[in-house]
Recover the amino acids of this structure.
């Protein structure tokens, strides 16, 4: 370990590792974008990366390092000894983009990782700082790729057609010249597979669930948070306990009961069940928030002759609007994404929710771009809400504990 | 002089408050009792009963009515026919009664002894029907002008038939066969092992991944908010959408990932990620980690941002290196939230059903206890065995909850 802690040893090692990471990233990205053959080369990555590491160590300037990296890698690509091996028949533009991406992706971060690093012996602080920066850089790339790739595949697949996909599963380039024809899977889903209806069903079931949940949870949460009664602590605990009963255990008797009473296959049945799955969560979240509100304001209201219910309506609820927004969004998300109950209880295609509709697309007769287009239709609204109201949503997720 | 004592018991105000509290809680209590407590009791009940999927529809008498002989003019003969059967092959239906309102203009020639006709009200008492019972009741009639005048066909008037059948769900018949069936052979233990593997590695993996992600974002830089939103995507998206995206991505024949791996020379031939043991279990666990690391990430990040920076400054002054600061400062501060997260996530991962069901359907050695409930109840049509598995799950859960409350009350003061 001590022998590693010299600038002229650490820099080439980090450079080699980093170039390999970048080469792999660029190769994967270019493959996914164009479908052509790109792959990283370990040998050339290590050799060139070590050289670049030493260069960056001496230059100590991000811009200069990047310039050196771009030029050096472009040259290596031209000679054919590059860290990214490019297959036959790849155009000049793609090669240029590859060289530029690898060059910039290597030069700039490497200079930042190695800045302030002396060429000689390193202190533990300097050494770990550089390694940490390297690991952080790797982490950003790794996590972003991990999260983005499945969604990228989902969206791009929905814009292609089956034969193209089977011919080259890596080719996600879309033909922009077909204009609106690009979205034909979506048009077919809404026209032939009733996805417009499912979207509406999912929406109003979710909204109803939110309202019913709040109607039950607000009084309950208030009672648990503010009022003194015997069994309060036990009640507060049993909420959490109920929250831990797995849905599949309850789904079985609910399925039986609904089959016998004719509630299976009806929206009414779904609207009856969904809120009960969310009431404990909502109650738990809200009572936490109510506890945090100053009791004095409410007591002042009581002194002025308001009844408890008026106090809740006029004082507590207006004060807890942000919490109500978070809880509503969280409940909406649970109801929108719910799959198990919809899958078990709905058989009639005219009453499907979106998730149930997607499940019905999962057959060998229906092309895969339809399945993915359905997934995108279900994902987009919840993502839009999430990004638009991220502040509330994040708070809701945190307060909603770790249910999922 | 009597001694002053503080009041004991509850005064009228306290009683009023408690009454209000209970009335506010009543709707929730009622709903939870109806949808959680009752079904739980039902699961226990069913787990001791020999119930198959087909038994859910109780046996019922079935009747079809038509007029044979094609009467065309007044005075023609016809046969009014009731085809009767018991919908069940093995269950008895008691006290079967048929009632019908006849159309005008039919004159009975000969009536079955079990039946009576008063005006247009027709009624038959059949007594008990054995399982698989089948009979055709034929009543010769003479069709008169009135029949053709009112133009109502015989099958347009509703015929009703009632009978008392005993459903196996409510009978006094109990069995231990369900439990014997699920504990039978090595299957149960392999299911339990898969569940434990999935739960332990899924939970720990999601926690560790979330910890790394939180460390990445615990700095302010441009695009931090964007990246934080992006990292939450896997959790916010509907499970069915992301599960199918993974299935497509990892498909052995036309999946992009396999094409990529082959092209990059990592493997010679495509890998069947969801189809072979033990890889399928590992892939499914990875999916679980991928989907739930955002939750741990969110919590850990919130905790990290609330740690006082003074401490780090002091450590810097003392010359602590970055790794030392993480190991000796951050990690101990995070231990509380990490242990709470571990306990909660452990229970919920244990309860997870949708993910595995959508990815592999429990095939290729990925059948967990929850998937086994579905498998037994619906794929094998044995509701009783499914309920028995559910009871086992519930038992495990009680144990976890006991542990959970023991720890969490220390951590969170609940």
């Amino acid at each position: 370990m001590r022998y590693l802690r010299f600038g002229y040893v650490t820099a080439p090692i980090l450079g080699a590792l980093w170039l390999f990471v970048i080469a792999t990233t660029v190769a994967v990205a270019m493959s996914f974008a164009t479908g052509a053959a790109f792959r990283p080369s370990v040998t050339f990555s290590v050799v060139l990366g070590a050289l670049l590491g030493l260069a960056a160590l001496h230059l100590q300037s991000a811009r200069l390092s990047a310039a050196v990296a771009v030029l050096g890698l472009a040259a290596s690509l031209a000679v054919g000894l590059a860290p990214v091996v490019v297959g036959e028949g790849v155009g000049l533009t793609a090669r240029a983009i590859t060289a530029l991406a690898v060059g910039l992706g290597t030069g700039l971060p490497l200079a930042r990782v190695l800045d302030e690093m002396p060429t000689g012996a390193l202190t533990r602080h300097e050494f770990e700082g550089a390694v940490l920066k390297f690991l952080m850089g790797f982490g950003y790339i790794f996590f972003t790729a991990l999260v983005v790739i499945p969604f990228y595949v989902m969206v791009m697949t929905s814009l292609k057609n089956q034969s193209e996909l089977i011919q080259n599963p890596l080719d996600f380039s879309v033909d922009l010249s077909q204009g609106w024809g690009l979205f034909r899977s979506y048009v077919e889903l809404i026209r032939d597979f009733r996805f417009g209806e499912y979207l509406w069903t999912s929406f109003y079931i979710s909204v109803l669930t939110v309202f019913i949940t709040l109607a039950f949870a607000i009084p309950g949460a208030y009672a648990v948070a503010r009022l003194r009664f015997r069994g309060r602590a036990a009640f507060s605990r049993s909420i959490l306990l109920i929250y831990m009963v797995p849905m599949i255990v309850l789904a079985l008797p609910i399925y039986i009961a609904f089959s016998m009473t004719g509630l299976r296959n009806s929206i009414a049945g779904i609207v009856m069940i969904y809120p009960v799955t969310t009431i404990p969560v909502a109650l738990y979240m809200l009572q936490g928030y109510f506890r945090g509100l100053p009791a004095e304001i409410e007591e002042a209201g009581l002194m002025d002759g308001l009844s408890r219910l008026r106090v809740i309506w006029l004082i507590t609820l207006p004060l807890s609007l942000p919490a109500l927004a978070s809880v509503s969004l969280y409940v909406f998300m649970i109801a929108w994404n719910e799959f198990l109950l919809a899958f078990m209880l709905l058989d009639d295609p005219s009453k499907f929710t979106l998730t149930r509709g997607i499940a019905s697309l999962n057959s060998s007769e229906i092309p895969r771009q339809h399945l993915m287009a359905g997934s995108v239709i279900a994902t987009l609204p919840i993502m839009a809400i999430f990004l638009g109201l991220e502040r509330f949503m994040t708070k809701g997720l945190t307060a909603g504990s770790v249910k999922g | 002089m009597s001694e002053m004592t503080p009041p004991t018991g509850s005064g009228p105000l306290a009683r009023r408050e408690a009454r209000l509290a209970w009335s506010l809680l009543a709707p929730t209590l009622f709903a939870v009792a109806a949808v959680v407590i009752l079904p739980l009791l039902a699961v226990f009940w069913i787990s001791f009963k020999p119930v198959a999927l087909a038994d859910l529809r109780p046996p019922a008498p079935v009747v079809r009515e038509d007029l044979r002989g094609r009467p065309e003019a007044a005075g023609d003969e016809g046969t009014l026919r009731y085809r009767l059967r018991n919908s069940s092959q093995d269950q008895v239906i008691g006290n079967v009664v048929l009632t019908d309102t006849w159309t005008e203009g039919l004159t009975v020639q000969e009536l079955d002894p079990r039946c009576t006709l008063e005006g247009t009200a027709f009624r038959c008492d059949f007594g008990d029907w054995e399982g698989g019972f089948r009979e055709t009741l034929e009543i010769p009639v003479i069709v008169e002008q009135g029949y053709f005048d009112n133009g109502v066909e015989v099958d347009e008037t509703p015929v009703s038939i009632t009978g008392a059948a005993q459903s196996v769900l409510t009978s006094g018949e109990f069995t231990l066969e369900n439990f014997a069936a699920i504990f039978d052979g090595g299957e149960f233990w392999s299911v339990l092992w898969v569940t434990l593997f999935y739960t332990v590695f899924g939970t720990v993996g999601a926690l560790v991944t979330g910890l790394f992600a939180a460390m990445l974002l615990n700095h302010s830089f441009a695009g931090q908010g964007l990246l934080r939103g992006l990292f939450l995507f896997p959790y916010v998206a509907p499970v069915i959408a992301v599960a199918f995206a993974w299935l497509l991505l990892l498909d052995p024949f036309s999946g992009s990932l396999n094409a990529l791996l082959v092209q990059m020379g990592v493997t010679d031939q495509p890998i069947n990620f969801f189809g072979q043991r033990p890889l399928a279990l590992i892939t499914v666990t990875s999916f679980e980690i991928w989907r739930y690391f955002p939750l741990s990430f969110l919590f850990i990040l919130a905790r990290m941002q609330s740690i006082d920076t003074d401490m780090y400054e002091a450590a810097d002054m003392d010359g602590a290196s970055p790794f030392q600061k993480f190991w000796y400062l951050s990690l101990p501060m995070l231990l509380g939230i990490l242990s709470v997260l571990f306990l909660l996530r452990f229970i919920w991962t244990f309860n997870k059903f949708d993910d595995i069901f959508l990815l592999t359907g429990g095939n290729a050695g990925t059948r967990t206890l929850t998937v086994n409930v579905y498998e037994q109840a619906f794929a094998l049509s044995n509701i009783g065995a499914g309920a028995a598995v559910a009871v086992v799950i519930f038992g495990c859960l009680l144990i976890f909850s006991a542990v959970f409350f023991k720890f969490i009350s220390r951590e969170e003061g609940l």
